[in-house]
Records
---
Amino acid sequence: MTRLRLLFVCVENSCRSQMAEAFARMLAGDRVDAASGGSRPSGVVNARAIEVMSELGYDLRAHRSEGLDELSAGAFDAVVSMGCGDACPHVPARRREDWTIPDPKDLPLDEFRAVRDELGRRVHDLLADLEVSPRGAAAVPPGAPESAGA
């Protein structure tokens, strides 16, 4: 079985794209090859992103902030950009989306969690559109009614 290649891009690759990559891994497991990158990477994963994803059982501490030039070569099945605008270089992809999601890095913790939950819902929907069924307990994205995973 060929795994779908997904790429999530934001400016610093420290919050949004890292959390989206984590959700893709949580929801689809080994059925996707999820990656993230930044147009101007900060070099670190945001401590709050690590904290809010750990609340859902995902450890972002092993991730690192990297630039798009560090990604493995080849086309992606889907590339999702989040707020990098003109700074997002072209990456070959079968499908492209631009999600308007605020950068949570300076937001209060409850608003940071709201951004995390929005990312979870959007990744869930993207996977469904790509015909990758979410698996297990992670099938219900954060903030969704429990019946959403049934």
Note: Residues 145-150 have pLDDT under 50 and may be disordered.
---
Amino acid sequence: MRINKILVPVDFSNCSINALKMAVGIAKTCRASIEVVNAFHMPAYPHADVVAADTIIQPILAEYEEQIQDQFDELQEKVPGLKSVDFTTRKFVSATKDAIYTCVEKDDIGLIVMGTKGSHDSIEKLIGSMSSDVIRFAKVPVLMIPENVESFDVKLIGFAADLNKIEEMNKLEVLAFFAKMTGAQIKIFNISSDTDEQNIIDKARERMALVESLKGIDHSYAWINSSKPLQGILDFVESHKLDMLAMFPRHHGFWDGLLHSSVTKKVAMKIKVPLLTIHE
């Protein structure tokens, strides 16, 4: 697997700038280029006549173009590493998720890197509704970087998945890509209330043995007895001191449950490591 271009949405907040810094480090390692995207959502004026609406909108658009270009020009000061990679900038007058979709469809994007904030009381707010939308439609892996992460120093990657339900095992190439790039070990773990631990692990080993991309990569298996997948995953991240968590969000029912579950601020704040979601 090779990633040629990394998409980074920015709103010039500290959170998005931090994600851009992480993306630069990844791009340098895998020799990829970066596409930095900003989107401005123009409010609608349904009751204004056409002439009046145009009079209002055009100055707003002109000001947006000027301000965003100035902020793009300042990026190399805020993120000095940008000078060491090929990068382009794009401006959109649209919702951010629509801008991301357009770039992914047209620009040979291989990875999306996004910043996330961790000062909310539910997983959906933690990730952000826009981020969760991107996870759902993106046809490429999405790497979410919490604002507290200061460097992409990954030594142990946790992969939470029900391997029996993954239809295309070759999608795990991206997991192998990150492991090889960082020299990390992969810890594959299954959250289940099934009491037959050995059977679960044996089945996981059988399926993973078919994944050519993981051969030669240090990986191990673990089983977590829990009827609460969310809590089980958060506890595993914490107890094993994972540097990154990887998940398949689709087709398992888990992701929808995760995003719509009401959880306490204490649990949500435990997610302080990058989260890689792999499109299936």
Note: The mean pLDDT is 78.
---
Amino acid sequence: MIEARADIVGNIWKITARVGDEVGKGDTVAVLESMKMEIPVVAPAGGYVSAILVDLNQIVQEGDGVVEIDDTPSA
């Protein structure tokens, strides 16, 4: 399991991935809002979304996990 992590402190503005979705390396899985800018959170590798670790409007810190990605689909 790997995690897509926040690159900057920000507010979770949008979650674009859902549990069970297949994502590719570099796909946007969520969007942060910081200083009126939208910053994508991208998948570091391809796989299947196994968990969403945040809620909309949640403040995250740099390095916080946002989405878990597994190499096998969840049942």
Note: The chain has no helices and eight strands.
